[in-house]
Structures are given as structure tokens and as C-alpha cells.
Predict the 3D structure of the following.
Amino acid sequence: MMFKAALANYKKIALLLCGYLFVALGVIGIVLPVMPTTVFFILALACFSKASPRFALWLLNHPRFGASLTQWKQYKVIPLKAKVMATVGMTASYALLILLSPAAWLACVVGSIKIAVMSYIYSRPSKRV
């Protein structure tokens, strides 16, 4: 029984640490144009929803990101502006990678991941149905 309690405690700590990490990466994404922001805040919300309802509410009530996070949580909506920004950021970062002349296999792997992520992003609705 003690093992289950300890495991649950470690899981909560890990989720909190991941939530903080994702918030930090989201803040960095605000400053760096080639790094996404909303995705990291969505991941932070997922972590905080399981580990700390107080921090989850803080994100949902945030003046800048709260509305889009609430739309995501309730309806899995990604606003068109976020889709366009994600596309621009991914395209710019991939162009930079290509300019650095990576190994062909690396360019293919990264390109495939970016296509998969963009496919998922554009498969989500832009407005609440």
C-alpha cells in the first residue's frame, strides 16, 4: 500500500515538473518566433489538470491564453490564427534546417514529423461547432 501512495506522489511531482517546463517553453515561444506557444500551454494544462487544479485554473483564467485553452479543453478547437502561426513557424524552422545542410535522413525525419503535426493541427476545427 505504501508503494502505491509513493508512486502516486511521484507521478504528481512529475506532472507538476512537466507542467512548469511546458509553461516555461511556452513563455520562450512568445519571444522566439520559430517556437510554438499554444502547444506548450495545452500540454501544461493537461499536466496541471491531473496534478494541480489550482494551476490548471490559473492557465484557464489567464488573460492572454485562457480563452484559447478553454476552447481547446472543451471543444478541441485550434483558432485559425494559431494554425497560421504554427505553419509559419514550422516552415521557417524547416527552411533554417535545410539551409544548415543536415544529413538527408535527418531532413526527411524532421520534415515527416512537421507534416504529421501540421496534418493534426489542420484536422481540428477552427471554430466551435
